[in-house]
Amino acid sequence: MSSIKDVAKAANVSTATVSRVLAKHPHVRPALRERVLAAVAQLEYRPNLIARNLRSQQSKTLGLIVSDIRNPFFTAVSRAVEDTAYAHGYNLLLCNTDENPEKELLYLQLMGAEQVAGVIFSPTLQTLNRWHELHLSFPTVLIDRSLRSGDVDAVLLDNLSAGSLLAQHLLSQGYRRIGAIFGEASTTGRERQRGFEAALHDAGLSIQPEYVRFVRPQSEAGYHTTLELLGLPEPPQVIFTSNSLLTAGALQAIREQGLHIPAQIGLVGFDDTAWASLVQPAITVLAQPTDEIGRSATELLLQRVADPQRPTRKIILQGELIVRESSVEQRGRT
Known about the structure:
Keywords: DNA-binding, Transcription, Transcription regulation. Strands 2-1-3-4-5-11 form a six-stranded parallel β-sheet, with helices on both faces. A six-stranded mixed β-sheet has the order 7-6-8-9-10-12, sandwiched between helices. The protein has three domains: 4-47, lambda repressor-like DNA-binding domains (434 Repressor (Amino-terminal Domain)); 59-155 and 290-318, Rossmann fold, CATH 3.40.50.2300; 159-288 and 321-327, 3-Layer(aba) Sandwich (Rossmann fold), CATH 3.40.50.2300. Helices cover 43% and strands 16% of the residues. The protein is α/β, with parallel strands linked by helices. The radius of gyration is 25 Å and the shape is elongated. It is built from twelve helices and twelve strands.
């Protein structure tokens, strides 16, 4: 592996000059800069970022720990985080936990070992419940999941209002038997469930426990749970899901049963994925402002890095109901 001394020797310059070129110092002659960069390319030199951070006492790397990168919500948020970090001169270290508390702990330890400037994190309920035992050495901003008691920056969707808004839409379309599938791994699913039930309560309807399920927030769970709901003696008239992976699983189950949407059963969910508007019929969703979530979380983290003593902030964003054909009113529903 080439060293900075090897680059300096190949370019016939000092190691200090190589460092200035790599740091994009403005006061380096163009010809000299080109010579150094040519040597860097020829030797395939990769700078030791950790050593550089130790010398400058300031890391230029941020961490992002998401619970499931297959979830389009986290994919979109990750892109917004990376774009914002890059615009501010930071690199991004991305880790995926699969909603596994052990992997969360492992990656938090990794972030500490890599001496990142700070971390954006979507933790499981288990990790949130032991948050004060973690003693993290870096600033943290939570996304998608909230810590009820704790002094931590966060960017969140108003999940109570979002769950209520989606349920109110179904009630306005005449649905009464609503099968609801919520993620069990985080605070998010519980909050959306409370909003869902509040809307039913406000409409004078009682909760029907046999129609409400908590599962792992993955497409396989959405598929199998929807099959169970459809197999009830009196199946639901519509399926409500709390994330896009559950929606995809529910859609697969409905189609395998040969049911027509929305004539025989309705379907709604969270997150406006690319496929939600392309399938026939298109799916009604509660869209989250993923770009704003990622951008706000990154800017909040950088503010914390710049001023560790400033008061914590919790940014609450609103979702948008996008009504499509999958939940429109159907006459003659039983």
